[in-house]
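Quick entry, no commentary yet.
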Amino acid sequence: MKNIVFIFRLILLFLPVILFSDFNYRILVSEEQNFVVREAVWNPENIFNIKSGLSADLKLLGETTFKFENFKLKFSDLATMPVETNGNFTNSLLEAYLSLNFYDFYLDAGKKRIVKGKGFLYSPSDFSLNQSFETTQNKDEVLQFKDGLWLTGVGYYSGIGNFSFYYIPDLAISNEAIERYFTKGQDEIYLLSYSHSLDFMDVGVVGAYSGSLKLGSYGSFRLNDNFVFYTDFAFLERVKNYELELKTYPYVGDIYQIKEIELSNRFQFIFGVSFTHNNFGLMIEYFYNGGGFEKSEFDKYQRDLKDTVKNFDKTNPVSIWNVGNSARIIESKGSLSLSQHYGMLRLYSLNLENFELASLVISSLTDFSGRFCNLVYYNIENITLGGEVFVAYGEPYREFMLYGEKWGIGLKAEVVF
Protein backbone atom coordinates (compact mmCIF):
# COMPACT_ATOMS: atom_id res chain seq x y z
CA MET A 1 0.00 0.00 0.00
CA LYS A 2 2.84 2.40 0.86
CA ASN A 3 4.46 1.74 -2.54
CA ILE A 4 1.19 2.55 -4.34
CA VAL A 5 0.84 5.83 -2.42
CA PHE A 6 4.46 6.73 -3.21
CA ILE A 7 3.94 6.11 -6.96
CA PHE A 8 0.70 8.12 -6.90
CA ARG A 9 2.53 11.06 -5.27
CA LEU A 10 5.22 10.92 -7.96
CA ILE A 11 2.53 11.04 -10.65
CA LEU A 12 0.91 14.07 -9.02
CA LEU A 13 4.34 15.73 -8.77
CA PHE A 14 5.26 15.28 -12.41
CA LEU A 15 1.78 15.62 -13.94
CA PRO A 16 1.88 19.46 -14.13
CA VAL A 17 5.36 19.24 -15.67
CA ILE A 18 4.14 16.84 -18.36
CA LEU A 19 0.94 18.80 -19.08
CA PHE A 20 2.51 22.26 -19.32
CA SER A 21 5.78 21.49 -21.07
CA ASP A 22 7.07 20.23 -24.41
CA PHE A 23 7.52 16.64 -23.29
CA ASN A 24 9.72 14.17 -25.21
CA TYR A 25 10.87 10.71 -24.34
CA ARG A 26 12.86 7.94 -25.96
CA ILE A 27 13.33 4.35 -24.86
CA LEU A 28 16.01 2.27 -26.55
CA VAL A 29 16.35 -1.46 -26.05
CA SER A 30 19.54 -2.96 -27.46
CA GLU A 31 20.89 -6.50 -27.42
CA GLU A 32 24.54 -6.83 -28.43
CA GLN A 33 26.60 -9.98 -28.90
CA ASN A 34 30.34 -9.87 -29.50
CA PHE A 35 32.76 -12.66 -30.25
CA VAL A 36 36.39 -11.56 -29.86
CA VAL A 37 39.61 -13.51 -30.33
CA ARG A 38 42.21 -12.24 -27.86
CA GLU A 39 45.83 -13.13 -28.51
CA ALA A 40 49.16 -11.32 -28.08
CA VAL A 41 52.85 -12.19 -27.97
CA TRP A 42 53.24 -10.73 -24.45
CA ASN A 43 50.93 -13.49 -23.19
CA PRO A 44 52.95 -16.67 -23.93
CA GLU A 45 51.14 -19.89 -23.06
CA ASN A 46 48.30 -17.62 -21.87
CA ILE A 47 49.93 -17.05 -18.47
CA PHE A 48 47.56 -14.11 -17.82
CA ASN A 49 44.51 -16.30 -18.48
CA ILE A 50 43.02 -13.96 -21.09
CA LYS A 51 40.00 -15.59 -22.70
CA SER A 52 38.58 -15.34 -26.16
CA GLY A 53 34.90 -15.91 -26.62
CA LEU A 54 31.37 -14.59 -26.67
CA SER A 55 29.94 -11.80 -24.55
CA ALA A 56 26.44 -10.38 -24.72
CA ASP A 57 24.73 -7.37 -23.14
CA LEU A 58 21.12 -6.29 -22.95
CA LYS A 59 20.88 -2.49 -22.65
CA LEU A 60 17.92 -0.32 -21.74
CA LEU A 61 18.41 3.40 -22.34
CA GLY A 62 15.69 5.80 -21.25
CA GLU A 63 15.71 9.53 -22.03
CA THR A 64 13.14 12.12 -20.95
CA THR A 65 13.17 15.84 -21.76
CA PHE A 66 10.84 18.55 -20.48
CA LYS A 67 11.14 21.86 -22.35
CA PHE A 68 9.62 25.09 -21.11
CA GLU A 69 9.99 28.60 -22.43
CA ASN A 70 13.04 29.43 -20.33
CA PHE A 71 14.33 26.15 -18.98
CA LYS A 72 14.80 22.48 -19.76
CA LEU A 73 14.95 19.30 -17.68
CA LYS A 74 16.62 16.20 -19.03
CA PHE A 75 17.06 12.71 -17.59
CA SER A 76 18.95 9.83 -19.15
CA ASP A 77 19.51 6.42 -17.56
CA LEU A 78 21.27 3.28 -18.80
CA ALA A 79 20.68 -0.20 -17.41
CA THR A 80 22.95 -3.03 -18.58
CA MET A 81 22.34 -6.72 -18.05
CA PRO A 82 25.11 -9.09 -19.21
CA VAL A 83 23.51 -12.14 -20.80
CA GLU A 84 25.82 -14.49 -18.91
CA THR A 85 25.45 -16.61 -15.80
CA ASN A 86 28.29 -14.76 -14.04
CA GLY A 87 27.40 -11.29 -15.31
CA ASN A 88 26.38 -8.44 -12.98
CA PHE A 89 23.52 -6.02 -13.58
CA THR A 90 24.59 -2.36 -13.61
CA ASN A 91 22.72 0.91 -13.84
CA SER A 92 24.04 4.41 -14.46
CA LEU A 93 22.34 7.79 -14.35
CA LEU A 94 23.98 9.26 -17.46
CA GLU A 95 22.40 12.70 -17.35
CA ALA A 96 20.06 14.55 -14.96
CA TYR A 97 20.27 18.31 -15.26
CA LEU A 98 18.38 21.59 -15.29
CA SER A 99 19.20 24.20 -17.94
CA LEU A 100 17.83 27.69 -17.24
CA ASN A 101 17.88 30.51 -19.83
CA PHE A 102 17.49 34.16 -18.90
CA TYR A 103 17.96 36.71 -21.69
CA ASP A 104 21.41 35.88 -23.13
CA PHE A 105 22.58 33.98 -20.05
CA TYR A 106 22.13 30.32 -19.14
CA LEU A 107 22.73 28.14 -16.11
CA ASP A 108 23.31 24.37 -16.07
CA ALA A 109 23.19 22.28 -12.91
CA GLY A 110 23.19 18.54 -12.38
CA LYS A 111 24.81 15.71 -14.31
CA LYS A 112 25.47 16.57 -17.94
CA ARG A 113 27.55 15.38 -20.86
CA ILE A 114 29.83 18.10 -22.27
CA VAL A 115 31.31 17.48 -25.71
CA LYS A 116 33.97 19.69 -27.25
CA GLY A 117 36.35 19.36 -30.19
CA LYS A 118 36.18 18.34 -33.81
CA GLY A 119 38.04 15.04 -34.22
CA PHE A 120 36.22 11.82 -35.02
CA LEU A 121 38.94 9.41 -33.93
CA TYR A 122 39.95 11.55 -30.97
CA SER A 123 39.47 15.17 -29.88
CA PRO A 124 42.50 16.47 -27.92
CA SER A 125 40.61 19.55 -26.67
CA ASP A 126 37.72 17.50 -25.24
CA PHE A 127 39.03 17.64 -21.67
CA SER A 128 35.80 16.52 -19.97
CA LEU A 129 34.90 13.48 -22.09
CA ASN A 130 38.45 12.54 -23.18
CA GLN A 131 37.23 9.58 -25.19
CA SER A 132 38.66 7.94 -28.30
CA PHE A 133 36.28 6.45 -30.85
CA GLU A 134 37.77 3.38 -32.47
CA THR A 135 34.47 2.47 -34.05
CA THR A 136 32.80 2.69 -37.43
CA GLN A 137 29.57 3.95 -35.84
CA ASN A 138 28.33 7.50 -36.00
CA LYS A 139 29.76 9.50 -33.10
CA ASP A 140 26.32 10.42 -31.72
CA GLU A 141 25.38 6.73 -31.52
CA VAL A 142 28.38 6.10 -29.29
CA LEU A 143 27.95 9.24 -27.17
CA GLN A 144 24.40 8.40 -26.13
CA PHE A 145 25.80 5.64 -23.86
CA LYS A 146 28.55 7.81 -22.32
CA ASP A 147 28.41 9.01 -18.73
CA GLY A 148 28.05 12.70 -17.97
CA LEU A 149 29.64 14.69 -15.13
CA TRP A 150 28.12 16.32 -12.04
CA LEU A 151 28.63 20.05 -12.54
CA THR A 152 27.44 23.61 -12.22
CA GLY A 153 27.93 25.96 -15.13
CA VAL A 154 27.08 29.42 -16.43
CA GLY A 155 27.26 30.80 -19.94
CA TYR A 156 26.62 33.87 -22.04
CA TYR A 157 25.57 34.15 -25.68
CA SER A 158 27.02 37.31 -27.21
CA GLY A 159 27.32 38.71 -30.68
CA ILE A 160 30.92 37.53 -30.84
CA GLY A 161 30.39 34.00 -29.53
CA ASN A 162 29.39 31.77 -26.63
CA PHE A 163 31.30 31.97 -23.34
CA SER A 164 30.88 29.29 -20.67
CA PHE A 165 32.39 28.20 -17.36
CA TYR A 166 31.80 24.85 -15.64
CA TYR A 167 32.85 23.68 -12.22
CA ILE A 168 33.06 19.89 -11.92
CA PRO A 169 33.53 18.95 -8.24
CA ASP A 170 35.60 16.10 -6.90
CA LEU A 171 33.33 13.17 -6.14
CA ALA A 172 34.85 10.21 -4.33
CA ILE A 173 32.51 7.25 -3.99
CA SER A 174 33.54 4.35 -1.79
CA ASN A 175 30.18 2.59 -1.77
CA GLU A 176 30.20 -0.21 -4.34
CA ALA A 177 26.40 -0.27 -4.61
CA ILE A 178 26.24 3.46 -5.50
CA GLU A 179 28.88 3.01 -8.21
CA ARG A 180 27.14 -0.04 -9.61
CA TYR A 181 23.56 1.23 -9.60
CA PHE A 182 23.70 5.05 -9.66
CA THR A 183 26.85 6.99 -10.49
CA LYS A 184 30.64 6.79 -10.49
CA GLY A 185 33.17 9.14 -8.94
CA GLN A 186 34.91 11.97 -10.76
CA ASP A 187 37.87 14.33 -10.44
CA GLU A 188 37.66 18.08 -9.89
CA ILE A 189 37.87 20.14 -13.09
CA TYR A 190 37.54 23.86 -13.80
CA LEU A 191 36.45 24.19 -17.45
CA LEU A 192 36.35 27.45 -19.41
CA SER A 193 35.37 27.58 -23.09
CA TYR A 194 34.57 29.93 -25.96
CA SER A 195 33.02 29.11 -29.33
CA HIS A 196 31.79 31.06 -32.33
CA SER A 197 30.18 30.03 -35.61
CA LEU A 198 29.99 31.76 -38.97
CA ASP A 199 28.48 30.62 -42.26
CA PHE A 200 31.74 29.13 -43.50
CA MET A 201 33.70 28.37 -40.34
CA ASP A 202 33.56 27.84 -36.59
CA VAL A 203 36.19 28.03 -33.86
CA GLY A 204 36.49 27.13 -30.21
CA VAL A 205 38.97 27.58 -27.37
CA VAL A 206 39.00 25.45 -24.21
CA GLY A 207 40.93 25.74 -20.97
CA ALA A 208 40.83 23.28 -18.09
CA TYR A 209 42.52 22.96 -14.71
CA SER A 210 42.56 19.68 -12.79
CA GLY A 211 45.83 19.82 -10.88
CA SER A 212 47.56 21.06 -14.03
CA LEU A 213 46.62 23.45 -16.81
CA LYS A 214 45.38 22.26 -20.21
CA LEU A 215 44.77 24.49 -23.21
CA GLY A 216 43.10 23.47 -26.44
CA SER A 217 41.48 24.82 -29.57
CA TYR A 218 39.43 23.48 -32.45
CA GLY A 219 37.83 24.74 -35.64
CA SER A 220 36.50 23.90 -39.06
CA PHE A 221 36.43 25.60 -42.43
CA ARG A 222 33.72 24.82 -45.00
CA LEU A 223 35.16 25.17 -48.47
CA ASN A 224 31.76 24.39 -50.01
CA ASP A 225 28.78 22.11 -49.36
CA ASN A 226 30.97 19.04 -49.93
CA PHE A 227 34.39 19.83 -48.43
CA VAL A 228 35.13 20.61 -44.78
CA PHE A 229 38.60 20.94 -43.26
CA TYR A 230 38.91 20.72 -39.48
CA THR A 231 41.54 20.70 -36.78
CA ASP A 232 41.77 20.10 -33.04
CA PHE A 233 44.83 20.50 -30.81
CA ALA A 234 45.79 20.73 -27.15
CA PHE A 235 48.71 21.41 -24.84
CA LEU A 236 48.41 18.93 -21.98
CA GLU A 237 50.04 18.20 -18.65
CA ARG A 238 53.31 16.32 -18.28
CA VAL A 239 53.01 12.58 -18.34
CA LYS A 240 55.34 9.74 -17.49
CA ASN A 241 56.41 7.30 -20.12
CA TYR A 242 57.97 3.94 -19.34
CA GLU A 243 60.66 1.73 -20.80
CA LEU A 244 62.23 -1.60 -19.94
CA GLU A 245 65.66 -1.42 -18.32
CA LEU A 246 67.81 -4.55 -18.25
CA LYS A 247 69.81 -5.24 -15.09
CA THR A 248 71.87 -8.31 -14.25
CA TYR A 249 71.97 -9.63 -10.68
CA PRO A 250 74.23 -12.36 -9.22
CA TYR A 251 72.51 -15.74 -8.76
CA VAL A 252 69.33 -14.31 -10.34
CA GLY A 253 70.19 -13.37 -13.90
CA ASP A 254 68.78 -10.75 -16.22
CA ILE A 255 65.79 -8.82 -14.92
CA TYR A 256 63.79 -6.29 -16.94
CA GLN A 257 62.61 -3.49 -14.68
CA ILE A 258 60.22 -0.67 -15.53
CA LYS A 259 61.92 2.71 -15.70
CA GLU A 260 59.97 5.97 -15.63
CA ILE A 261 60.69 8.64 -18.21
CA GLU A 262 59.07 12.00 -17.49
CA LEU A 263 58.06 13.91 -20.59
CA SER A 264 57.74 17.64 -21.08
CA ASN A 265 54.30 19.12 -21.64
CA ARG A 266 52.46 17.05 -24.22
CA PHE A 267 51.09 18.33 -27.49
CA GLN A 268 48.31 16.53 -29.39
CA PHE A 269 46.99 17.50 -32.79
CA ILE A 270 44.27 16.36 -35.19
CA PHE A 271 43.90 17.48 -38.79
CA GLY A 272 41.10 16.13 -40.94
CA VAL A 273 39.10 16.58 -44.10
CA SER A 274 35.51 15.52 -44.69
CA PHE A 275 34.02 15.03 -48.15
CA THR A 276 30.39 14.18 -48.93
CA HIS A 277 28.79 13.39 -52.27
CA ASN A 278 25.30 12.07 -52.92
CA ASN A 279 24.83 9.10 -50.56
CA PHE A 280 28.38 8.67 -49.25
CA GLY A 281 30.92 10.48 -47.13
CA LEU A 282 34.67 10.20 -46.63
CA MET A 283 36.72 11.30 -43.61
CA ILE A 284 40.52 11.34 -43.45
CA GLU A 285 42.35 12.23 -40.23
CA TYR A 286 45.92 12.54 -39.04
CA PHE A 287 46.55 12.33 -35.29
CA TYR A 288 49.81 13.41 -33.65
CA ASN A 289 50.27 12.13 -30.10
CA GLY A 290 53.16 13.84 -28.31
CA GLY A 291 52.97 11.39 -25.40
CA GLY A 292 53.76 8.34 -27.52
CA PHE A 293 57.06 6.59 -28.12
CA GLU A 294 59.43 7.98 -30.67
CA LYS A 295 60.33 5.40 -33.30
CA SER A 296 63.69 4.61 -31.70
CA GLU A 297 62.04 4.16 -28.29
CA PHE A 298 59.34 1.91 -29.71
CA ASP A 299 61.94 -0.15 -31.59
CA LYS A 300 63.83 -0.65 -28.31
CA TYR A 301 60.66 -1.73 -26.52
CA GLN A 302 59.89 -4.25 -29.27
CA ARG A 303 63.43 -5.70 -29.03
CA ASP A 304 63.15 -6.02 -25.25
CA LEU A 305 59.71 -7.60 -25.54
CA LYS A 306 60.99 -10.12 -28.07
CA ASP A 307 63.81 -11.02 -25.70
CA THR A 308 61.46 -11.63 -22.74
CA VAL A 309 59.15 -13.78 -24.90
CA LYS A 310 61.98 -15.71 -26.54
CA ASN A 311 63.45 -16.63 -23.15
CA PHE A 312 60.11 -17.28 -21.44
CA ASP A 313 60.02 -20.20 -19.02
CA LYS A 314 56.83 -20.60 -17.01
CA THR A 315 58.73 -22.52 -14.32
CA ASN A 316 61.08 -19.57 -13.77
CA PRO A 317 59.68 -16.70 -11.60
CA VAL A 318 62.18 -14.23 -13.08
CA SER A 319 61.00 -15.05 -16.60
CA ILE A 320 57.37 -14.53 -15.60
CA TRP A 321 58.36 -11.23 -13.96
CA ASN A 322 60.05 -10.03 -17.16
CA VAL A 323 57.06 -10.85 -19.36
CA GLY A 324 54.72 -9.23 -16.83
CA ASN A 325 56.67 -5.96 -16.89
CA SER A 326 56.59 -5.99 -20.68
CA ALA A 327 52.80 -6.29 -20.58
CA ARG A 328 52.45 -3.55 -17.94
CA ILE A 329 53.95 -0.97 -20.27
CA ILE A 330 51.17 -1.62 -22.80
CA GLU A 331 48.58 -1.51 -20.03
CA SER A 332 49.93 1.81 -18.74
CA LYS A 333 49.75 3.41 -22.18
CA GLY A 334 46.34 2.29 -23.41
CA SER A 335 44.94 2.36 -26.90
CA LEU A 336 46.17 4.89 -29.49
CA SER A 337 49.06 5.96 -27.30
CA LEU A 338 52.10 3.80 -28.05
CA SER A 339 53.02 5.66 -31.24
CA GLN A 340 53.21 9.35 -32.07
CA HIS A 341 51.63 9.26 -35.53
CA TYR A 342 48.27 7.78 -36.58
CA GLY A 343 46.08 7.91 -39.63
CA MET A 344 42.37 7.21 -40.08
CA LEU A 345 40.14 6.74 -43.11
CA ARG A 346 36.36 6.34 -42.76
CA LEU A 347 33.95 5.72 -45.64
CA TYR A 348 30.27 5.84 -44.69
CA SER A 349 26.79 6.02 -46.19
CA LEU A 350 24.43 9.01 -46.10
CA ASN A 351 20.65 8.84 -46.32
CA LEU A 352 20.48 5.39 -47.85
CA GLU A 353 16.98 3.99 -47.59
CA ASN A 354 16.92 1.47 -44.72
CA PHE A 355 20.70 0.83 -44.79
CA GLU A 356 23.70 2.23 -42.91
CA LEU A 357 27.14 1.20 -44.16
CA ALA A 358 30.59 2.19 -42.90
CA SER A 359 34.21 1.11 -43.18
CA LEU A 360 37.05 2.35 -40.99
CA VAL A 361 40.82 1.93 -41.11
CA ILE A 362 43.04 3.12 -38.24
CA SER A 363 46.79 2.77 -38.68
CA SER A 364 49.94 3.54 -36.74
CA LEU A 365 52.14 5.50 -39.13
CA THR A 366 55.16 4.40 -37.10
CA ASP A 367 54.98 0.66 -37.81
CA PHE A 368 51.95 0.54 -40.20
CA SER A 369 49.97 -1.91 -38.13
CA GLY A 370 46.30 -1.12 -37.72
CA ARG A 371 42.69 -2.09 -37.39
CA PHE A 372 40.11 -2.55 -40.14
CA CYS A 373 36.37 -2.44 -39.36
CA ASN A 374 33.19 -2.88 -41.39
CA LEU A 375 29.64 -2.14 -40.29
CA VAL A 376 26.24 -2.92 -41.84
CA TYR A 377 22.92 -1.89 -40.27
CA TYR A 378 19.42 -2.37 -41.63
CA ASN A 379 16.69 -0.06 -40.34
CA ILE A 380 12.96 -0.82 -40.40
CA GLU A 381 11.09 2.13 -38.89
CA ASN A 382 12.14 1.98 -35.22
CA ILE A 383 14.06 -1.31 -35.45
CA THR A 384 17.76 -1.65 -36.29
CA LEU A 385 19.47 -4.93 -37.10
CA GLY A 386 23.08 -5.34 -38.08
CA GLY A 387 26.61 -6.22 -37.24
CA GLU A 388 30.24 -5.17 -37.23
CA VAL A 389 33.44 -7.05 -37.88
CA PHE A 390 37.01 -5.95 -37.14
CA VAL A 391 40.47 -7.40 -37.67
CA ALA A 392 43.85 -6.16 -36.47
CA TYR A 393 46.69 -6.39 -38.97
CA GLY A 394 50.48 -6.22 -38.76
CA GLU A 395 53.39 -8.34 -37.64
CA PRO A 396 53.15 -9.91 -34.14
CA TYR A 397 55.22 -7.26 -32.35
CA ARG A 398 53.62 -4.27 -34.07
CA GLU A 399 51.41 -1.86 -32.12
CA PHE A 400 47.88 -2.97 -32.98
CA MET A 401 48.81 -6.62 -32.54
CA LEU A 402 49.95 -5.81 -28.99
CA TYR A 403 46.53 -4.55 -27.84
CA GLY A 404 45.38 -8.14 -27.55
CA GLU A 405 42.22 -8.15 -29.69
CA LYS A 406 43.04 -9.96 -32.92
CA TRP A 407 39.62 -10.04 -34.58
CA GLY A 408 35.99 -9.97 -33.64
CA ILE A 409 32.37 -10.02 -34.80
CA GLY A 410 29.52 -8.10 -33.22
CA LEU A 411 25.76 -8.39 -33.77
CA LYS A 412 23.15 -5.89 -32.61
CA ALA A 413 19.36 -5.68 -32.48
CA GLU A 414 17.88 -2.38 -31.38
CA VAL A 415 14.35 -1.09 -30.87
CA VAL A 416 13.45 2.55 -30.18
CA PHE A 417 10.10 3.61 -28.69
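second:
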Amino acid sequence: MNTLEIVPTYIEGKVSKAGKKYWSVSTESNVDYTVFDEPVVTQLVLNKPIKVNVAISDNWKNIRSIADPAAVISKDMIVEAPKQQDKYTDARASKDASMYTSYAKDVFIRLIEDEHYEHKAEIAMNAAIDLVKQAREAFS
Protein backbone atom coordinates (compact mmCIF):
# COMPACT_ATOMS: atom_id res chain seq x y z
CA MET A 1 0.00 0.00 0.00
CA ASN A 2 1.32 3.43 -0.99
CA THR A 3 0.75 6.76 0.74
CA LEU A 4 0.09 9.49 -1.81
CA GLU A 5 -0.98 13.09 -1.68
CA ILE A 6 -3.91 13.78 -3.99
CA VAL A 7 -6.13 16.77 -4.74
CA PRO A 8 -9.68 15.52 -5.46
CA THR A 9 -11.46 17.61 -8.11
CA TYR A 10 -14.61 15.52 -8.64
CA ILE A 11 -16.35 12.74 -6.71
CA GLU A 12 -19.07 10.68 -8.36
CA GLY A 13 -21.17 7.95 -6.79
CA LYS A 14 -21.57 4.81 -8.89
CA VAL A 15 -23.02 1.31 -8.65
CA SER A 16 -21.06 -1.77 -9.72
CA LYS A 17 -22.56 -4.52 -11.88
CA ALA A 18 -23.00 -6.51 -8.68
CA GLY A 19 -25.04 -3.65 -7.20
CA LYS A 20 -22.38 -2.44 -4.76
CA LYS A 21 -22.08 1.32 -4.22
CA TYR A 22 -18.68 2.95 -4.77
CA TRP A 23 -17.21 6.31 -5.70
CA SER A 24 -14.94 7.47 -8.50
CA VAL A 25 -12.53 10.23 -7.47
CA SER A 26 -10.89 12.37 -10.14
CA THR A 27 -7.81 14.31 -9.14
CA GLU A 28 -5.92 17.43 -10.20
CA SER A 29 -3.24 15.21 -11.78
CA ASN A 30 -5.89 13.52 -14.03
CA VAL A 31 -5.63 10.21 -12.19
CA ASP A 32 -8.84 8.45 -11.19
CA TYR A 33 -9.21 6.45 -8.00
CA THR A 34 -12.01 4.31 -6.59
CA VAL A 35 -13.31 4.34 -3.03
CA PHE A 36 -15.51 1.58 -1.64
CA ASP A 37 -15.88 2.86 1.93
CA GLU A 38 -18.28 5.74 2.58
CA PRO A 39 -16.44 6.87 5.75
CA VAL A 40 -13.32 7.34 3.60
CA VAL A 41 -15.04 9.29 0.81
CA THR A 42 -16.77 11.60 3.28
CA GLN A 43 -13.37 12.81 4.46
CA LEU A 44 -12.25 13.92 1.00
CA VAL A 45 -12.57 17.64 0.37
CA LEU A 46 -12.69 18.92 -3.21
CA ASN A 47 -9.66 20.91 -4.34
CA LYS A 48 -7.85 20.35 -1.03
CA PRO A 49 -4.69 18.22 -0.82
CA ILE A 50 -4.98 15.11 1.32
CA LYS A 51 -2.72 12.15 2.03
CA VAL A 52 -4.36 8.81 1.35
CA ASN A 53 -3.36 5.16 1.50
CA VAL A 54 -3.78 3.66 -1.97
CA ALA A 55 -3.76 0.02 -3.05
CA ILE A 56 -2.61 -0.29 -6.66
CA SER A 57 -3.24 -3.41 -8.72
CA ASP A 58 -3.21 -3.66 -12.51
CA ASN A 59 -5.36 -0.74 -13.73
CA TRP A 60 -7.07 -0.05 -10.41
CA LYS A 61 -6.07 2.54 -7.85
CA ASN A 62 -8.19 2.12 -4.75
CA ILE A 63 -8.16 4.61 -1.87
CA ARG A 64 -8.32 2.41 1.23
CA SER A 65 -7.96 4.97 4.01
CA ILE A 66 -6.99 8.53 4.88
CA ALA A 67 -3.36 8.84 5.97
CA ASP A 68 -3.86 12.44 7.08
CA PRO A 69 -7.54 12.99 8.10
CA ALA A 70 -9.13 16.20 6.78
CA ALA A 71 -12.40 18.03 7.30
CA VAL A 72 -15.52 16.10 6.37
CA ILE A 73 -16.95 16.88 2.94
CA SER A 74 -20.52 18.09 2.84
CA LYS A 75 -22.93 15.61 1.28
CA ASP A 76 -24.15 18.10 -1.34
CA MET A 77 -20.67 18.10 -2.93
CA ILE A 78 -20.92 14.39 -3.80
CA VAL A 79 -22.79 13.35 -6.91
CA GLU A 80 -25.15 10.61 -5.76
CA ALA A 81 -25.02 7.12 -7.23
CA PRO A 82 -27.68 6.49 -9.83
CA LYS A 83 -30.67 4.47 -8.71
CA GLN A 84 -30.32 0.93 -9.93
CA GLN A 85 -33.13 -0.08 -12.23
CA ASP A 86 -35.27 -3.03 -11.38
CA LYS A 87 -34.61 -4.93 -14.60
CA TYR A 88 -36.97 -7.73 -13.57
CA THR A 89 -39.95 -5.37 -13.29
CA ASP A 90 -39.19 -3.81 -16.69
CA ALA A 91 -38.84 -7.23 -18.32
CA ARG A 92 -42.02 -8.48 -16.64
CA ALA A 93 -44.02 -5.48 -17.89
CA SER A 94 -42.76 -6.04 -21.43
CA LYS A 95 -43.60 -9.74 -21.25
CA ASP A 96 -47.08 -8.99 -19.87
CA ALA A 97 -47.80 -6.53 -22.70
CA SER A 98 -46.73 -9.14 -25.24
CA MET A 99 -48.92 -11.77 -23.56
CA TYR A 100 -51.99 -9.51 -23.52
CA THR A 101 -51.42 -8.59 -27.17
CA SER A 102 -51.37 -12.29 -28.02
CA TYR A 103 -54.60 -12.87 -26.08
CA ALA A 104 -56.27 -9.95 -27.85
CA LYS A 105 -55.16 -11.33 -31.22
CA ASP A 106 -56.63 -14.76 -30.40
CA VAL A 107 -59.93 -13.21 -29.30
CA PHE A 108 -59.95 -10.99 -32.41
CA ILE A 109 -59.51 -14.00 -34.70
CA ARG A 110 -62.44 -15.75 -33.03
CA LEU A 111 -64.62 -12.62 -33.18
CA ILE A 112 -63.87 -11.90 -36.86
CA GLU A 113 -65.13 -15.42 -37.71
CA ASP A 114 -68.50 -14.43 -36.18
CA GLU A 115 -71.02 -13.09 -38.70
CA HIS A 116 -71.72 -10.09 -36.46
CA TYR A 117 -68.11 -8.81 -36.87
CA GLU A 118 -67.43 -10.25 -40.35
CA HIS A 119 -66.56 -6.95 -42.10
CA LYS A 120 -65.91 -4.82 -39.03
CA ALA A 121 -62.25 -5.51 -38.16
CA GLU A 122 -61.74 -2.31 -36.14
CA ILE A 123 -64.82 -2.94 -34.03
CA ALA A 124 -63.78 -6.57 -33.53
CA MET A 125 -60.27 -5.52 -32.44
CA ASN A 126 -61.62 -2.96 -29.95
CA ALA A 127 -64.01 -5.60 -28.58
CA ALA A 128 -61.13 -8.08 -28.24
CA ILE A 129 -58.99 -5.53 -26.38
CA ASP A 130 -61.88 -4.67 -24.06
CA LEU A 131 -62.48 -8.37 -23.30
CA VAL A 132 -58.79 -8.95 -22.48
CA LYS A 133 -58.74 -5.83 -20.24
CA GLN A 134 -61.83 -7.07 -18.39
CA ALA A 135 -60.27 -10.50 -17.89
CA ARG A 136 -56.98 -8.98 -16.66
CA GLU A 137 -58.80 -6.75 -14.16
CA ALA A 138 -60.97 -9.63 -12.96
CA PHE A 139 -57.90 -11.72 -12.09
CA SER A 140 -55.78 -8.90 -10.64
